[in-house]
Amino acid sequence: MVKALTLKEIEAILAVTDTLGISREAVVIPLRTDHPDRLSVLKDGRLEIVVDRESEFADWLRTLEPRLRELMGRSSD
């Protein structure tokens, strides 16, 4: 369980968004986690990724790519 993100977790999240071709400038990752987690498109078009406080980070990270694909309406490659 993670209460606040470190650079290590942020880099892991950005590795996933990079794979999907999402600009790092278009991603907002709050340092504080929350429960439940949230993936949403903000009014300004940026993608907000809030990590789940009650999940193990590695487990949560494995779910990120398919959930982002679903949010963006992309199928698996």
Outline the structure in words.
By secondary structure, the chain is α+β, with helices and mostly antiparallel strands. It has one domain (7-70). 38% of the residues lie in helices and 13% in strands. The protein contains two helices and three strands. Helix 1 runs parallel beside helix 2 (57-72). It is globular. The model has no long low-confidence stretch (mean pLDDT 95).
User: What Rg, in angstroms, do the CA atoms define?
Assistant: 12 Å
What structural class is derived from the secondary structure elements? alpha+beta
Along the chain, the helix and strand elements come as HEEEH
Helical run tally: 2
Tell me the total number of β-strands. 3
As for the number of domains, it is 1
Which range does the strand content fall in? 5-15%
Taken from the alpha-carbon principal axes, the silhouette is globular
Mean of all residue-level pLDDT scores: 95
Q: Separation of termini?
A: 30 Å
| Strand order, sheet with most strands | 1-3-2
- Unreliable spans: none
**Amount of helix:** 25-40%
What topology emerges from the helices and strands here?
Blueprint: H1 7-19, E1 27-28, E2 38-41, E3 47-50, H2 57-72
Parallel strand pairs: 1-3
Antiparallel strand pairs: 2-3
